[in-house]
Each structure stands twice: as C-alpha cells, then as structure tokens.
Design brief:
The chain is mainly beta. The protein has 3 helices and 16 strands. The chain folds into 2 domains: 12-157, Chitinase A, domain 3; 175-304, Chitinase A, domain 3. Helix content is 6%, strand content 31%.
Length: 305
C-alpha cells in the first residue's frame, strides 16, 4: 500500500483516450530512420504527418502476441512529427512503461500499433491526431493537428493475476474471499481468527516461479487491502480493473510492503499482515484507515524490474 502513488514512467499524456482508424504499413514511414542501438536513435523529417495510424516492424520478436486488453511492458521514444523533436522517452528514466491496452487507458493509436505484435519486437508507428489527443498538449509543444511518431520495444506481456495451486492461510488469520472471477475481494473471519496481530508477516498463497523481488525495483501488482480482521476494504486494484505499478522503496511504500515483499517470487500471490507500526501508525490514512489499525493485503506479484 503506497504512502503516495508514484507516477509510472509512462507519461500522463499517453494514458488519455481518443478514437481513430486502422491501417498497415505505409509510405509515410519511409523517410524515418531508426538505429539498431539498445536505445534507438530516431530521425524524423520535419513536417511528418499521417491521416491513419501506420506501423512498420523494424525487428520482429519471437514472443507471444500482444492483444487488446493485455497488460504490456515496453520502452518507447516519442517524436513530434511536425518538429522532428523528441518529446518523451521511457529510456531516459531507466525503467520500462507498463499499461493496459484498452480504450479507457491509452490512446487509440497505441492499441492499433501494438495489437497483434510479438513480444521482443521493435515497432515504428505514426499516430495522427484522430488516434491521439485531438487537442494541443502545450507542455510537450504538441499542437492539435500534430502527428506523433513512436518507436516501441515490446519487453513483455504481463499476466493479470497469479496462477497455480492455492495454499491455505493459517487458522489464526482471516480467510481470503474470492469474487465471481476468482480474484481476491477481501477477507472473512472465522472462530479461530486472532483478535489482534502484533508482528508483520507474509503468507504465500500461490508460489510463482519468477525471480525474487529486490528492494527498489519497480513492481506491478494486483491487490486488495482491508482493515484487520473484518473491517472495510479500503483499496483494490482489481475493482479498478487494472494493475498498479509502484517502486518498492523505503519511504515510498509502507514498511510492511518493503520488508515483506522483498524476496518473494514474481508470479506469487502473497497475503501480508501489517500492524499499524509497519503501516500508517497512530495517524491512519484517509477515512477508512484509523490510527492503530492493522491491515491485511492480498497481493499478486505480476512483474518486477
């Protein structure tokens, strides 16, 4: 549970929505050059524009195909077609972007550029205003009629939940509830549930087979948080319909998360018990978490980098 939400490297400008039309490879991309460097150098002639979203696979990967609705992890460079100047890049931050390919989350041009592409591919795309913002973005010197050029390196398709055989929780803890889709929705007490918890702890419900998570990595998770033992559910990424991305750093997230998630394997579902001294202390947080509250979390660890 974050003390504050950290911005994903994907800039806010890329998670707005718009509508537009499909297209395939086209001559509008012929004058654009892309280097083979790990961080691509992209040369876009001034005045480059398009009426339709147009893509070209620079290098085809061998991984799974990406489809609309998937959570994707990628690096990108963004250039204003009018000026030929770069206005955004995930490479500059040193961390790949993560987002869901649906029309409520990203630009229509992103979906059209990436739907059907393979993980490991480098894709060149030009996105017209109809599939972009449709209005000026002054902070990036983008006019309403500017086309945008992107180079995407598709790093991975991120699972939406932990999968595998589930293990039970100790009898002294509230038991995990699942919704109709099988996603954690909260916790229920039993006659054996302890009234209080004094130490933070982690309990693996599903063990993944990924690499152990390290401190200061950027992690992508699905989670639900509830006041112990049977209080209010105060936050849920599942209910929002999209995973959350945080930097697992001390001072950025509550102590319980940074202490208990380090060492857990990517792909796991982990339940955390977080007494107040490892969560929000005597101050609490918001209307639902009071001072002194112990918290429960069910967390699916989807990705770490």
């Amino acid at each position: 549970m974050p003390r504050r939400l950290l911005p994903v490297v994907l800039s806010a400008l890329l998670v707005l929505t718009a509508c537009g039309s499909d297209d395939a490879d086209g001559a509008t991309l012929d004058g654009i050059t892309v280097s083979k460097d790990a961080t691509p150098k992209v040369d876009v002639p001034k005045g480059t524009s398009a009426d339709e979203t147009t893509t070209k696979v620079i290098e085809e990967g061998s991984g799974d195909q990406v489809a609309e609705g998937d959570v994707v992890k990628l690096n990108y460079v963004a250039i204003n077609g009018r000026t030929g100047k770069q206005f955004d890049s995930s490479y500059a931050s040193g961390s790949a972007a993560m987002f869901t390919l649906d029309e409520t989350s990203v630009l229509a041009g992103f979906i059209k550029s990436l739907d059907g592409q393979k993980v490991g591919s480098r894709v060149l795309a030009i996105i017209p205003p109809a599939d972009g913002f449709g209005q000026a973005q002054e902070s990036f010197d983008l006019r309403a009629d500017d086309s945008m050029v992107f180079v995407f390196d598709i790093v991975a398709k991120v699972p939406t939940e932990a999968t595998g055989d589930a293990q039970g929780l100790p009898d002294t803890l509230p038991q995990l509830d699942l919704d109709d889709d099988g996603h954690p929705s909260g916790f229920s007490t039993t006659d054996s549930t302890a009234k209080t918890q004094t130490r933070s702890s982690a309990h693996v419900v599903i063990e993944g087979d990924g690499e152990p998570i390290e401190l200061d990595q950027t992690v992508t998770v699905q989670y639900v948080g509830q006041v112990y033992p049977d209080g209010s559910v105060f936050d849920s990424s599942w209910s929002r319909g999209t995973p959350a991305t945080f930097q697992l750093s001390k001072g950025q997230l509550i102590e319980c998360w940074t202490d208990q998630l380090v060492g857990q394997k990517v792909g796991s579902r982990v339940v955390l018990v977080c007494p107040s001294d490892t969560a929000y202390g005597d101050e609490g947080s918001g209307e639902l978490i009071k001072g002194g509250d112990t918290l429960l979390f069910a967390i699916d660890l989807l990705d770490a980098s």
